[in-house]
Design a protein that fits this description.
The protein has 114 residues and is an all-alpha fold. The protein has four helices and no strands.
């Protein structure tokens, strides 16, 4: 499988998994839930921007922006764990998804296939 499509597929699977967890967020944590949701959709948007551009420098910028968004998503998920909204098992599971996507993104950057 092409690493570009692996990036998109893993991201979609991660979003589906996280969306299932967002149902359990309390109403008092609406801001955190909204930030997680917004960030997830921006991740997919950045991947599509990456696919559609032909200029190497711009593609690299979108991949770096993707890595920043992944880091923010990881932060938000950690905050949900600290506020006892999600369990440690869910935290580890989501973090593993995020780490896998991040590895694919760094692999694309290092392989210089951009």
């Amino acid at each position: 499988m092409n690493s570009n499509y692996a990036l998109l597929n893993k991201s979609k699977l991660t979003i589906i998994y996280i969306n299932k967890q967002l149902v359990n967020f309390p109403k008092s944590e609406r801001v955190l839930k909204d930030n997680i949701e917004k960030n997830m959709y921006e991740i997919i948007e950045l991947i599509y921007f990456y696919y559609l551009n032909d200029i190497k420098r711009i593609k690299l910028k979108y991949l770096k922006d993707l890595i920043v968004k992944l880091s923010m998503l990881d932060f938000y998920i950690n905050m949900a764990f600290c506020k006892r909204i999600i369990s440690k098992k869910r935290l580890e599971s989501i973090s593993n998804f995020i780490i896998e996507i991040r590895k694919i993104a760094y692999g694309i950057i290092r392989s210089d296939k951009i």
